[in-house]
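Quick start: what a row looks like.
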Amino acid sequence: MKRKLLSALTVLLTGFSLMAQGVKLEVGMKAPDWVFTDADKKEFTMNSWAGKVLQVNYVDPDEQDLNEPFNEAIDKAVDVDKRISKDYFKGFGIVDCKSTWKPNSLIRIIAGNKAKKYDTTILFDYDGKLQNLWGLPKDSYSVVILDKNRVCRAIYKGKIPDNEIEKTIQLIIALTKE
């Protein structure tokens, strides 16, 4: 009887362990939700921007400039060319604090400057939660595009190739019109 109970307990704990590790987010999958705070400790979830297409930048602070050309192109498409409507789109950053040696106080200063530059929201993942929940790499810069239903429509790990920038903008435009 003890052996059966121990076996059942082992199977149960293994199952919980696998569920806690999360899944690798892929195109076509619904993105698991999360809760992160901004510098003022205000909590945000993906539902904070209900009805909007999301561009989630998951950034190791040591790689903060890696996708600057992409973000500048998005900024231009939204603010200058008006090809992407702010009514249906939100781009924001989540800082991967676990992947850097930099102290959290310095990270908040750097993030504050980026938030002002791009007029956006910056959230903080102090424990590397999205690395586990979405299978995103550490020490990197990932960009995830989610439709209004939070289904992953594009995911880039590392630098977005120049020839993908306009394609991704066109994807966002199409998603905002759905």
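That is the whole record. The chain is about 40% helix and 20% strand. The first helix runs from residue 2 to 21.
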